[in-house]
Amino acid sequence: MSKILVIAEHLDGKLNSATARVVSAAAAVGGDAIDVLVLGDAPDAIAAEAAKIEGVSRVLTVTRAENAHMLAATAAPQIAKAAEGYSHVFGPSTTTGKDLMPRVAALLGVAQVSDVMTVESSHVFTRPIYAGNAIVTVEAPTDHTVVATIRSASWKAADNGDSAAPVEALTLDIELPAHTRFVELKQDKSDRPDLQSAPRVVSGGRGVGSKENFDIIYKLADKLNAAVGASRAAVDAGYVPNDMQVGQTGKIIAPELYMAFGISGAIQHLTGIKDAGTIVAINKDADAPIFEIADIGLVGDLFKIIPEIEAALG
Ligand SMILES: Cc1cc2nc3c(=O)[nH]c(=O)nc-3n(C[C@H](O)[C@H](O)[C@H](O)COP(=O)(O)OP(=O)(O)OC[C@H]3O[C@@H](n4cnc5c(N)ncnc54)[C@H](O)[C@@H]3O)c2cc1C
């Protein structure tokens, strides 16, 4: 019978929505229990949020000063210890999860199943390969713990349930490595919605032409209350910071609406938006590959079309 431990991801005292997506994948495995593990120096508020997610059986908290900031080197041994008795340990395939979960897998002596898209049975999963051009079916051995990262874009976040699951404090009797320590977190502060979880994303590519010209993308995004993304060419040209990159080596996203301006539609970019609901492409080249996957395509100059869209929005 399956007993699944879901690793909560959080920052600044708030649970990341990726956690509820992982719970959905855990629910697809089914089984006896889905417990969420929250590591923190003051995890109670985060645990209370996690407890509300539908399908969660228990929330386990580990309170330690070392957990004030997420460090894979110190979190992994705690998770490996907490994983005793569980058949599965799931985390999100976010940047944090990709750093953390392979260490957990190594400590448990198993190979990680990465980027789970679907659950076929308790030990059989599908995942993308070749930048999402092929889907492979992976079978994990049934006599070992399954450690997996869950591809956030493939799963809807589990809703909040009617009642909260119990929260229990866990004490793990282990010494943590001291070779890695937190120094500083540098991150851009923005009032715009988070690119990875926003329902609407407006993206610009090389066609936008410059950092200054990107203002037109920000303005439209603000009008639509959308997050802003970019192609790698726009990032490499210095128009925008690299945490805005969408695609194979950027963020994999699944917004309800994705609007691409001046983006040609290279396969590495499309990999990041395959799961988007409606894709709108604006490009002056009628043969741009992005039109092959766009639900709505407009051939034209983005600098003419964006003001027209804004005017139509009122
Ligand atoms: C290993 C690897 C990983 C990669 N990872 C990523 C990734 O994660 N994300 C990513 O995006 N790319 C990635 N790339 C790069 C990718 O192959 C493309 O080079 C990149 O996506 C191109 O960006 P672009 O569409 O903005 O630029 P271009 O391909 O140069 O396209 C610009 C488009 O803008 C249009 N245009 C120009 N002016 C206007 C205008 N005024 N109005 C309307 N349209 C206009 C043009 O017609 C053109 O189609 C990766 C490549 C490799 C090899």
From TrEMBL:
A GO biological-process term: fatty acid beta-oxidation using acyl-CoA dehydrogenase
Superkingdom of origin organism: Bacteria
Pfam families: ETF, ETF_alpha
Chain positions recorded as FAD binding sites: 206, 231-232, 245-249, 262-269, 283
Co-factor remark: Binds 1 FAD per dimer.
Domain Electron transfer flavoprotein alpha/beta-subunit N-terminal residues, every copy: 4-186
CDD domains membership: ETF_alpha
Cofactor(s) annotated in UniProt: FAD
UniProt-annotated stretches for the region Disordered: 187-206
Role, per record: The electron transfer flavoprotein serves as a specific electron acceptor for other dehydrogenases. It transfers the electrons to the main respiratory chain via ETF-ubiquinone oxidoreductase (ETF dehydrogenase).
Protein name, entry field: Electron transfer flavoprotein subunit alpha
Organism of provenance: Oleiagrimonas soli
